[in-house]
Amino acid sequence: MGRRGWGTIGVVTTILGFAGVPDDLETWYRWFDVLLGWIDAVVNDPLALALARHAVTVADFVNQDWFRVTLVLGGLVVMIWPLRWFWRLRHNLRYRWRRALVEQVWISDEDAKRVMRDSPWGQLKEPTITIGYSFLDNLVGKREIISGLSEGEKKLVKFNAYISRTLDKFCENNSDAVRVVDGKREVDEVALRKFLDLLVEKELIQDFGDIPDIRLG
Question: Which residues, in sequence order, are bridge partners of residue 179?
Answer without folding.
Answer: 186
